[in-house]
């Protein structure tokens, strides 16, 4: 992510903005998945 710039992508600014938004969405989903995977189901 840090190595890319709008000029590196075809379509430039708009494509970069879309890609960056999708990447951030992916990162947040993975963080939530790790939290959910860390939850233990404890039944009595």
From TrEMBL:
Domain of life of the source: Bacteria
Protein name, entry field: Uncharacterized protein
Species lineage: Bacteria, Pseudomonadati, Thermodesulfobacteriota, Desulfobacteria, Desulfobacterales
């Amino acid at each position: 992510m840090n190595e890319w710039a709008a000029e590196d992508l075809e379509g430039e600014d708009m494509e970069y903005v879309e890609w960056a938004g999708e990447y951030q969405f992916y990162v947040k989903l993975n963080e939530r998945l790790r939290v959910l995977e860390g939850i233990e189901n404890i039944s009595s």
